[in-house]
Amino acid sequence: MNRWHYVKRLLPLIAAMTILLAGCGQADTSTLIPQGPVAQKQYDLMKLSISIMIGVVVIVFALAIYVLIRYRRRPGQTNIPVQVEGNHKLEILWTVIPILLLVVLAIPTVRTTFDLAKDYSKEPDAVKVKVTAHQFWWEFDYPELGIKTAQDLIIPVGKKVQIELVSADVLHSFWVPSLGGKMDTNVGEGNINKMFLIADKEGVYKGKCAELCGASHAYMDFKVQSVQEQDFKAWVSSMKAGAALPADQELKDVFTQKCLSCHAVGDQGVQFAPNLTGIGSRETIAGILANNPENIAKWIHDPQKVKPGNLMPKVDLTEEQITGISEYLSGLKSSIRQ
Ligand code: HEC
Ligand SMILES: [Cu+2]
Predict the structure, then answer these.
(1) Residue 28 and residue 14: Cα distance in Å, rounded?
(2) Superfamily of 127-238 according to CATH
(3) Which residues pair with 141 in a beta bridge?
(4) Which ligand is nearest to the CA of 284?
């Protein structure tokens, strides 16, 4: 079989890959479509380094192909061509050029690295958030504002959000591709990683745990939602206003006994599991299910089926109680997505 036959057979695959991969970009999840200055700087570095690498590859390959053709062994040739080993000019050339390329790459890389490592914890205007990663959910604590939430990180547009990262159990990694990251969350208060994010526009940006952390690592999703400043303030007030327990006395007792032993609603309960204040307004349930009463019920029915290995057990409840609690939770709105 001649060699072009292989190339012809590969062509459709290469064409299909090109089309498929070109379709990857989505403004809410792609590092290639940055939505804020941090992501933009990271993207600029990627562009610079990839351009340099492409330049090197093209030139080296062109030279190699030229040499292969130009100096190939011709029919009847028996002598060895002139050798250039130890040629000073060439050796200096191919030492100096890579050094120059590395300098060109190093200057913006070092500058950006220091820029992005700035700590705005003392800046009054920055919003401070302490992020705690858990198997398999995200806790967002706003110490200066006195609120705690989970799964959806709400931030004001255009403001610096200074983030402290810790883990409650194993190593995780905080990554919002279109805004910035990724950075590990370490175990122990002595080992806090810091970073900041800024969102240019209003929007919902998908986040991921980027470090294999257990059975449901792939489901450890979260969102960053950026809203206008006044909407952010309204959200903070609505979260601080707390939330009522179920109106029905029986449901209230069941919920208090069986759920508030781990969860919190308003100022009631325990902070072991996601704080459920405002859960009715979140994008998702448990970070992955669309937010509606049916999915809340599905979650309560069997949390292990949705997210294998997570720390919420199957709670013994009647069908009626599950429906009642799901509707109650669905009604726990914050000022976002009423
Ligand atoms: C032993 C502790 C525990 C108990 C008891 C418990 N949960 Fe959970 N719950 C968790 C944990 C841990 C998670 C986070 C799971 C994950 O996403 O990995 C969770 C998640 C949830 C979520 C999703 C939260 C979110 O942020 O999207 C809902 C809703 C929920 N629980 C409702 C309930 C209800 C209702 C009850 C009572 C019937 C209950 N839970 C009892 C530990 C508990
Ligand atoms: Cu994780």
Answers:
(1) 27
(2) Cupredoxins -  blue copper proteins (2.60.40.420)
(3) 130, 148
(4) 1
